[in-house]
Amino acid sequence: MNHSWMPESPCGPECLPPRDPGTEVGRLRLAMRIGITLGLLLIGSAMVLGLPSPLRRRAVPKWFRMLLRALGIRLEVDGTLRPGGGLIVCNHVSWLDVVALQVLTPMKMLAKVEVRSWPVLGSLAGRIGTVYIDRDRLSALPGAVDTIADELRAGAVIGTFPEGTTWCGSASGTFRPAVFQAALDAGAPMRPVAVRFRDGAGKLTTAAAFLGDASLADSVFSVARMRGLVVEVVVLPELTGTDRKSLAREAQAAITGVTGARLGHDEPAEAVAA
Fold first, then answer.
1. How far, in Å, CA of 192 to CA of 181, rounded?
2. Which GO terms describe its molecular function (predicted)?
3. What does the alpha-carbon distance between residue 129 and residue 119 come to, in Å, rounded to a whole number?
4. pLDDT tens-place string over residues 44-98
5. CA terminus-to-terminus distance, the chain
6. What is the separation of C-alpha 187 from the centre of its chain, rounded to a whole number of angstroms?
């Protein structure tokens, strides 16, 4: 079933490039990356619990940057976010999108309730203020919009993926307009951010995508094996307008203009959501 509140992506393992041992690190390097990453996750949990709020806000972006480095990923950022609260909308390829966005500034992410059950990361996500959404119940949509609007009125930075699920990066899904309505209700600024990935040869790649039935552990190992992976984050101009559907289309056009992604074959260009 594929409706506005429970979108599904046709992207799966067939969207990923074939494994090439020549582009992967050796077993020792892989083991080091995984070990350091696990250590950072434990440190991150303690940091979120133990630091006072002002220190935590400064420490969180640095910690997420260290996490990328531990996995052998280089981050390139084009642009900056203005201080203060607001809605950040981004295309969704991988769990790495969340990591990259948190380097920009600490933000509360919108996430499906299933994220709570992820080992270690689920607990950490909750402690940094993740706003969980139950996409299995369409009746939850109005309440979710109200919750997001309340957070924005309180000055929070809310990060969200309006596609509602991950796509491979060379294709994208329709941006759902509900979150834009929340920002309109709160009178909050809206900023699109584009994320894309390059391989060691500098070419755009879908290799980092988190798709289909892959587990989080599978995806982490897959990413950790890659040599020379780069995540690019491009901060785009603020959105203008007063209509949620127009804002969703504007954000999607701005982001796909950077990523070069085509609209998914099962996502009609005129599709809109409640």
1. 15
2. acyltransferase activity
3. 17
4. 777 766 777 778 778 888 989 999 999 999 999 999 988 889 999 999 999 999 9
5. 16
6. 23
Note whether 219 and 240 are within 8 A (CB): no
> Nearest-CA neighbor of 263 among 137, 175, 176?
175
* pTM of the complete model: 0.88
Residues of the chain scoring pLDDT < 70: 1-6, 48-49, 112-129, 132-141, 265-274
* Lookup result for tokens 């995508």: 209
Q: 28: buried, middle or exposed (CB in 10 Å: 19+, 13-18, 0-12)?
A: exposed
With beta carbons less than 8 A apart as the criterion, state whether 192 and 89 touch.
Answer: yes
Within 10 angstroms of residue 181's Cβ, the number of other Cβ atoms is: 20
CA-nearest of 250, 141, 111 to 191 is: 250
| CA separation for the pair 181, 227 (Å, rounded) | 41
